[in-house]
Amino acid sequence: MSLPRLLQTLHRMHRQVSDLRDRIRRIPNRAKTSETNLKNLEQELADEKENWRNVRRQAEEKQSQLRTREDRVANRKGKLNEANNNRDYKAIQDEIAADTQANAVLQDEILELLERLDEVQKKSQERTEAVETFKKEHARLISKLDEDKIALEKELERVQGELKETEKQLDGDVVSIYHSAIRAHGENGLAPLEEGSCGNCNHLVTPNVQSDVEMGRPVACKQCGSLMYPKRD
C-alpha cells in the first residue's frame, strides 16, 4: 500500500476509534439524564400526593366545623321554647339565621374542596401511571445502553487491533513523524491536503511541500504538526 493511501487509511481508523470512544463516553450521560427525568417525575408525583393530602385535610377540617355549627343551630332551636320574652326569642332567631347563613357558605366551601380533591386525585393517578410507564422505559433504556456499550467496546477493540496491524506497514522516517503527530494531536495528527491547504488547520503550504506530499513523502504541517497526505476519493 502506498504511503498516501496508508496514511488515509490510518486517519480513517483513528477517526473510528475517536468516534467509538466518544459514543462509549456518552452512554453514562444518557443513563444519568433518564434517571434524572425519572426522579423529577417521582418528585412531581410526591408533590401531587402531598397536595391531595392537604386538600383532604382542609375539607375534613371544614366538615368538622360544619358539624359543630349545625349542632349549635340545633341547640339554639331547642332554646326557642325556653325564651322568656319576645326579645330573647327574636335574639335567638337572629343567631340561628346568622349561623344558618354561615353554614351555607361553609357548605359551598366544602363542595369546592371536594371537587378540587377529585381533580387532584385524578392528576395524581395520571402522574402515577406516567411514572410507571417511564420506569419501564427507563429500564429498557438502561438495558439497551448496557448492550450498546458491550457492542461498542468490542468494535473499539477490533478497530484498535486493525489499527495496530496497519501501523506495522509504516517504515523509514515516517514512523517517528507519525507517532509524534498522533501523540501530540490524536486523530488530528493526520490531515488530508486539500487544494494546497492542511485539512486540519487550513494552513496554505508551498508548492514544493504540496509536491512532496503528492509524491508520497512524509511531510508534517509547519503550522499544526499534522502529517499530511493527498486527499483521495
Please characterize this protein's 3D structure.
The protein is mainly α and 233 residues long. A four-stranded mixed β-sheet has the order 2-1-4-3. The chain starts with a helix and ends with a strand. Helices cover 77% and strands 6% of the residues. The chain is rod-shaped, with a radius of gyration of 40 Å. A hairpin with a 2-residue loop joins strand 1 and strand 2 (197-198).
Record the SSE blueprint.
Blueprint: H1 3-79, H2 86-167, H3 174-185, E1 190-194, E2 197-198, H4 207-214, E3 219-220, E4 227-230
Parallel strand pairs: 1-4
Antiparallel strand pairs: 1-2, 3-4
Taken from the alpha-carbon principal axes, the silhouette is rod-shaped
What's the total count of β strands?
A: 4
Query: What percent strand?
Result: 5-15%
Task: State the distance separating the first and last CA atoms.
Answer: 16 Å
Q: Which strands sit side by side, in order, in the main sheet?
A: 2-1-4-3
Mean pLDDT: 93
Helix and strand succession? HHHEEHEE
Number of helices: 4
- Uncertain regions: pLDDT < 50 for 5+ in a row? none
Radius of gyration: 40 Å
Look at the helices and sheets and give the structural class.
Answer: mainly alpha
Helical content (DSSP H or I, runs of 4+): over 70%
Largest sheet: 4 strands, mixed
